[in-house]
């Protein structure tokens, strides 16, 4: 009987470990691999978890250094990489342009509304990166263990650096012009309660209602519960009701006039799972700018 196959670490993880050991920092290794420092750090951490063995000592004052196990493993990794590089087919392929795979995990609506429109610009700026975009489930706390980068929504953890925050989003009611035209004009926030309010477990109405001075108002209990923010936007576009939406996700519909904002009042988006990518940050930070009408919100990271 042949020996049972061993589940091996990924080649990407081994290359990241080799680069960090050689460069001495995640940042320098990231520049060499054309990745973000957080992506490199995540690959090395995943390798350590797979081996159940720390390979690096992380000391804020002294930086990174190899553990004794890390020294021994590095020699073995470099021997294995040398064997792979010496193969004739690999030698021939090495003369071709190198492409690095980057797996990004995001929730569906954020991916559809913000990431996909940015892909042409990202590909033009980083032709060596082969981006794989996967979707995560908003209601699940667990992330994508195989992702190099996760885009999540919520309070920014203490271990997330400021430059890893994509945007601080805001919530506000949005409706189609046709729906508003079919009802008396909205003169104050309380008038909004005369319209059907779309509901989703991902984002309750109560934060905005309280900010609008309607603390006594209750969550809507009529109509379908839409467990996807993209479905909420689609229902609003169809004139089925008013959506409590994040301005970043509805920016195209607002710009095109397919949705309108009846009141300028916004509140920080505090709930909903989504997630950050260093190379996406310059392009993705733009949509949320100019929308913070009610102060600083929680961050996408």
What does it look like?
The protein is an alpha/beta fold. Among the domains are: 83 residues, Arc Repressor Mutant, subunit A, CATH 1.10.10; 99 residues, Periplasmic binding protein-like II (D-Maltodextrin-Binding Protein, domain 2), CATH 3.40.190.10. It is 36% helix and 13% strand. It has 11 helices and 10 strands. The strands form 4 sheets. Strands 4-3-5 form a 3-stranded parallel β-sheet. A 3-stranded antiparallel β-sheet has the order 8-7-9. Strands 1-2 form a two-stranded antiparallel sheet. The chain starts with 10 loop residues before the first helix and ends with a strand.
What are the main properties of this structure?
single chain, 301 residues, alpha/beta, Arc Repressor Mutant, subunit A, D-Maltodextrin-Binding Protein, domain 2, 11 helices, 36% helix, disordered C terminus
Residue runs with pLDDT of under 50 for 5 or more positions: 271-301
CATH homology-level superfamily of the domain at 170-268: Periplasmic binding protein-like II
Q: How far is the N terminus from the C terminus?
A: 49 Å
Structural class: alpha/beta
The tally of beta strands, per DSSP, is 10
Radius of gyration in whole Å, from Cα? 24 Å
As a percent range, the share of helical residues equals 25-40%
Overall 3D form:
elongated
Tell me about the biggest sheet?
Answer: 3 strands, parallel
Q: Secondary-structure element order, as H and E?
A: HHHEEHHEHEEEEHHHEHEHE
The overall pLDDT, averaged over residues, is 81
Number of helices: 11
Q: Judging by the overall fold, what is the CATH architecture of the domain at 170-268?
A: 3-Layer(aba) Sandwich
Q: What is the topology, as strand order, of the major beta sheet?
A: 4-3-5
Task: Identify the CATH class of the domain at 170-268.
Answer: Alpha Beta
Approximately how much beta-strand content do the residues carry? 5-15%
What CATH calls the topology of the domain at 170-268 is D-Maltodextrin-Binding Protein, domain 2
């Amino acid at each position: 009987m042949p020996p049972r196959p061993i589940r091996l670490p990924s080649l990407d993880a081994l290359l990241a470990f080799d680069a960090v050991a050689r460069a001495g920092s995640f940042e320098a290794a990231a520049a060499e691999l054309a990745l973000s420092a957080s992506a490199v750090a995540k690959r090395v951490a995943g390798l350590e978890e797979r081996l159940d063995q720390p390979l690096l000592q992380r000391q804020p004052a002294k930086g990174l250094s190899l553990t004794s196990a890390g020294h021994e493993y590095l020699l073995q990794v470099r021997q294995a990489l040398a064997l792979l590089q010496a193969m004739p087919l690999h030698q021939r392929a090495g003369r071709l342009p190198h492409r690095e795979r980057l797996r990004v995990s995001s929730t569906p609506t954020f991916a559809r509304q913000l990431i996909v429109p940015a892909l042409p610009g990202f590909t033009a700026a980083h032709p060596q990166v082969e981006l794989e975009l996967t979707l995560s489930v908003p209601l699940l706390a667990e992330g994508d263990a195989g992702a190099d980068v996760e885009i999540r929504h919520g309070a920014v953890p203490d271990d997330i650096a400021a430059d890893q925050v994509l945007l601080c989003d805001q919530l506000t009611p949005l409706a189609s012009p046709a729906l508003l035209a079919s009802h008396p004009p909205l003169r104050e926030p309380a008038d909004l309660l005369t319209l059907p309010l779309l509901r989703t477990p991902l984002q309750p109405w109560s934060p905005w209602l309280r900010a609008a001075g309607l603390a006594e108002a209750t969550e809507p209990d009529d109509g379908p519960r839409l467990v996807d923010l993209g479905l909420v936007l689609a229902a609003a576009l169809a004139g089925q009701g008013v959506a409590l939406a994040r301005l970043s996700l509805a920016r195209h519909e607002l710009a095109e006039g397919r949705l309108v904002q009846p009141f300028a009042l916004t509140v920080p988006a505090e709930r909903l799972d989504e997630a950050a990518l260093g190379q996406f940050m310059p392009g993705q930070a733009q949509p949320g700018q100019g929308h913070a009408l009610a102060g600083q919100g929680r961050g996408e990271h």
